[in-house]
């Protein structure tokens, strides 16, 4: 059996689920561990999380029992010491780089990681697009607004629409996140991405998604060209991802949330744009990035298309 720990925010949870579905497609016996979301595990966390995978409609998943989990993670002092000295003896696999192709050959392991790399599950994306079924908005009137927006994105100006995700919040207010994620999705990045879209679709209309709408309004004041999208908050916030998936162009922040807005985009004419790197503590190799993110447009913090 393989067990995958589910942890983090919605985008990371979806990546762990995608790895689960990928291993399932290879005939593996795989289950998910949701214990990270238990009350005891969430105590003391700076940003407590819920298992938001459960917000999707009838998402198929096999969840491990405490006993099944314990067989992997409950280790004696002697076993932990042996695992440190001889890592191959450990039944816990910890992600340590962008892409681990050896994961597909593992048996009898407990997997810990975020599995961001698109190469892991790009081949099963059509299945994942069917798996992730969005719920209706809790407010019927706002559901109607969302449906009208999706229709507009798909059809207005011949469907020449683009979404821009501006991730602010803890990315600019918490120093640890500024150090890790700051100065990647820069003004130069967004300006270059918008210019790229307009070079291909001069009449494109842009839909802005942000956890800081006031900042978005200041940055993109032209209402004839830019629409600031609001109304999906709290447990309804994942519906922003659904809206993103209806645009022809996806301009992502260095955020797994907007990556999934692009991934779930089933439009045959879609163009996905992302930051060249995700984190500041990550070494990036251009050839590998193009291999790991095939079909994506990569733009760095200086606004250069790589």
Helix fraction, binned, reads 25-40%
CATH fold-type name of the largest domain:
Rossmann fold
How many separate domains make up the residues? Answer: 2
Radius of gyration: 20 Å
The average pLDDT score comes to: 94
Structural class: alpha/beta
Our measurement of the CA-to-CA distance between the termini, rounded to an integer number of angstroms, reads 40 Å
H and E string:
EHEHHHEEHHEHHHEHEHEHEHE
Percent strand? 5-15%
Query: Based on the structure given, which CATH architecture of the largest domain is correct?
Result: 3-Layer(aba) Sandwich
Q: CATH top level of the largest domain? A: Alpha Beta
Number of helices: 13
Pfam family, one: Glyco_transf_11
Protein name: Glycosyl transferase family 11
GO molecular function: galactoside 2-alpha-L-fucosyltransferase activity
InterPro entries: Glyco_trans_11 (IPR002516)
Attribute tags:
306 residues, alpha/beta, Rossmann fold, 2 domains, six-stranded parallel β-sheet, four-stranded parallel β-sheet, transferase, galactoside 2-alpha-L-fucosyltransferase activity, Glycosyl transferase family 11, glycosyltransferase
Structural write-up:
This protein is of the alpha/beta class and 306 residues long. It folds into two domains: 2-125, no CATH class; 137-299, 3-Layer(aba) Sandwich (Rossmann fold), CATH 3.40.50. The chain contains 13 helices and ten strands. Helix 1 packs across helix 12 (256-263). The longest helix has 16 residues, at 10-25.
